[in-house]
Amino acid sequence: MPSNMTHLLLLLLTFLSLVSFATTEAQDDPFYLYQFCSSDKTNPNTSFQFNVNNLLSNLSSNPTGNAQFYNTTITGETPSDSIYGLFMCRADVSSQLCQQCVLDATLKLSSECPLSKQAVIWYEECMLWYSTALIFSTMATTPNSTMQNSGHVPNPESFMSLVFSTLNQTADKATIDNKKYFATKEANVFGSQTLYCLVQCTPNLSPHDCRTCLNDAIENISGCCEGRIGGRVLFPSCNVRYELYPFYTIPSSTSTPKLLPETKTSHADSNFSEDPVYLSHNCSNKTFSASNNTFQAYHTTLLSNLASNATSSKKFYKTNVSDSVFGLFLCREDLPSGLCGDCVQNATHQISLKCDRSFHEAIIWYSHCMLRYSYRNFFSKLEISPMFSELNTTNKDKEQNFFTVKLAKTLDQTAIQAGDSDERYGTNSAKLNDLQTLYTLAQCTQDLSTEDCKGCLGIMIGTSIPWSRLGSIGGRVLYPSCNIRFELFQFYRDIDKTTGTPTPENVHLALPCVNVF
Ligand SMILES: *[C@@H]1O[C@H](CO)[C@@H](O)[C@H](O)[C@H]1NC(C)=O
Ligand SMILES: *[C@@H]1O[C@H](CO)[C@@H](O)[C@H](O)[C@H]1NC(C)=O
Ligand SMILES: *[C@@H]1O[C@H](CO)[C@@H](O)[C@H](O)[C@H]1NC(C)=O
Ligand SMILES: *[C@@H]1O[C@H](CO)[C@@H](O)[C@H](O)[C@H]1NC(C)=O
Ligand SMILES: *[C@@H]1O[C@H](CO)[C@@H](O)[C@H](O)[C@H]1NC(C)=O
Ligand SMILES: *[C@@H]1O[C@H](CO)[C@@H](O)[C@H](O)[C@H]1NC(C)=O
Ligand SMILES: *[C@@H]1O[C@H](CO)[C@@H](O)[C@H](O)[C@H]1NC(C)=O
Ligand SMILES: *[C@@H]1O[C@H](CO)[C@@H](O)[C@H](O)[C@H]1NC(C)=O
Ligand SMILES: *[C@@H]1O[C@H](CO)[C@@H](O)[C@H](O)[C@H]1NC(C)=O
Ligand SMILES: *[C@@H]1O[C@H](CO)[C@@H](O)[C@H](O)[C@H]1NC(C)=O
Ligand SMILES: *[C@@H]1O[C@H](CO)[C@@H](O)[C@H](O)[C@H]1NC(C)=O
Ligand SMILES: *[C@@H]1O[C@H](CO)[C@@H](O)[C@H](O)[C@H]1NC(C)=O
Q1: Which residues line ligand 2 (CB under 6 A)?
Q2: DSSP letter, residue 152
Q3: Which residue's CA is the closest to the ligand 11 atom numbered 6?
Q4: Which domains does the chain have, with CATH numbers?
Q5: pLDDT in tens, 103-128
Q6: DSSP assignment, residue 205?
Q7: What pTM was computed for the model?
Q8: Cα–ligand 9 centroid distance for 192 (angstroms)
Q9: How far is CA 465 from the centre of its chain?
């Protein structure tokens, strides 16, 4: 009988992929978070296992009628064989994405914990829970999970008190104002940034239980996420989340435009461009006495060591001279080594001109590379200042639309990918509509740990992008330790997965006119 189930799921999968081909909506994949499979297991080929499969197939076939929540019972021959299950989608996700999410959840559970007597799985867009216990009328906070953004806020006390009071108001909204057991709420923070909060309970709870569950979850935020720029608590009966970027769609009164406005910078480049474009530099305000020959000699040696190492196919290199001057360069990971070398050569030359050799420390940014030096050992330290950003912002707060949510989600996933990779480099693309594709890139200096890389990029996404005032899509933010870029055209080379190098035929092509603004 399990093969019947597989059959049904396959049919469903085929059906759903046909549906998604027919639609003009942008593609979106459910994002897996966490699962719990009880260690209390049944034996294979028992009627209980058969019932679990039945339940999962019943659940996966039920979001068809736009249902965002559904519960079902498979009655066993003996009461202990009965099994109770439910799923819930985040109230703002489309019914198509809800269906896909529930289907993914059932497939993952049936392949990864086929014999468990209880299981819960959470995705960003939905959750699914089954148990031999009657779960419909009780409030449950176990099994549970918490997640936190790696980034830390600079002023945790005032930030967390805003988080708690806003989540609290969001919980009131969900249980008192709209009684939908789902609510989102925004608050202003750090002057120009926005705090985004979301709470949701399964609709089978009583209002009192829903509020109790949310209170427990909000209280648990202090355990997982104190001082973090984002966090969430996942219970079977409810969940809460806050971030400094939009992660849900606010129902909009104005219809979203068909095409997104694109940022038109003076130096937009494509994945073919070969010239290192100078972006910005910063010289520290402290200087050594101009007559300090020791520092100047070390400084000269350092820059020449950096320049010569850049031509030997390294994308990142750090070095020091006599433990007195420290320096590094970082090239965009996708560049062929020739272009990296060109950029670093240019950078060492320009940094000497722009900040003369008496400065304590300096940094220079190009489209292709970054170079910095200091009298202090800054290696492996997460540094977010000085900052350079090139974003198109408007003065007026805009409503969050599908596109900003998609951009934030794509950047967030790119940041995770960069942190998890050995090169601390990640790229991503996402189709926004029939005509537009979003391209994103995130990179950290390779001396950062995975956690610090994600932390640096998390702070950047949360605090340096004014989400509610983005005028158009396209731009970049640069810190000493990490950087992000996003555009509506492909500005990076696809790295050949097998060799880890850019494919040669793409390296020396002329700049196509279509990408020049
Ligand atoms: C369960 O049943 C299938 C066929 O339905 C069989 O191939 C398999 O060996 C059985 N497994 C156990 C553990 O009995
Ligand atoms: C799912 O179960 C319900 C009863 O719990 C039943 O009415 C419905 O027909 C089932 N659906 C499928 C597709 O098995
Ligand atoms: C769904 O849950 C409610 C309680 O919230 C219960 O009365 C109902 O029987 C359940 N439906 C199924 C099909 O199990
Ligand atoms: C979360 O789950 C753990 C067991 O994994 C449990 O000890 C803890 O009490 C749960 N938290 C809440 C708030 O129920
Ligand atoms: C949250 O709201 C409850 C009542 O709704 C109140 O008692 C509690 O003090 C509030 N907590 C915070 C941190 O605002
Ligand atoms: C999480 O919530 C449970 C239930 O309310 C509580 O016992 C526990 O102390 C909370 N943990 C933290 C860290 O707040
Ligand atoms: C900035 O955004 C506004 C509003 O979308 C747009 O009209 C303008 O052209 C954009 N500016 C640049 C430099 O892209
Ligand atoms: C140098 O810059 C730092 C901040 O970057 C500032 O706190 C300090 O006062 C400045 N010093 C001088 C002499 O301008
Ligand atoms: C000169 O530079 C060296 C090397 O960076 C440094 O250790 C020393 O303190 C500097 N001396 C003065 C007088 O600034
Ligand atoms: C790289 O720099 C080191 C000093 O950090 C130097 O000894 C070495 O010769 C350089 N390598 C190349 C290939 O230039
Ligand atoms: C640096 O680049 C600029 C233009 O991008 C070019 O004019 C200049 O000659 C280059 N300098 C060096 C030293 O490569
Ligand atoms: C460069 O970009 C174009 C379109 O933006 C794309 O078709 C092409 O595949 C890209 N090449 C590489 C190597 O990424």
Answers
A1: 58, 61, 72-73
A2: B
A3: 346
A4: 32-131 (3.30.430.20), 145-243 (3.30.430.20), 275-374 (3.30.430.20), 388-487 (3.30.430.20)
A5: 999 999 999 988 899 999 999 999 99
A6: S
A7: 0.85
A8: 41
A9: 14
